[in-house]
Amino acid sequence: MIERHGTLFVVSAPSGAGKTTLCRAMRLRLPELAYSVSVTTRPPRAGELDGVDF
Fold it and tell me: Which residues contact 33 (CB under 8 A, 6 or more apart)?
């Protein structure tokens, strides 16, 4: 039998729709939430850190 360890929420929307704003607001209200770093094949943007921002 598989144990239940939590609930997965997927936040998906076009660029500029407010995904990051929503996730930050949720983490302020619910600090027990974990955040998964996105995976991408694009090169890092200025100021982005590998394993933190992408």
Answer: 26, 27
The residue assigned the tokens 């407010």 is 18
* Residues 27/37/6/15 CA torsion (nearest 10 deg): 70
Question: Of how many residues is the chain composed?
Answer: 54
Count Cβ atoms within 10 A of the Cβ of residue 54 and give its class: 0-12 exposed, 13-18 middle, 19 or more buried.
middle
- How far, in Å, CA of 31 to CA of 14, rounded? 25
Q: What is the pLDDT of residues 32-49, one digit of tens each?
A: 888 888 788 888 889 888
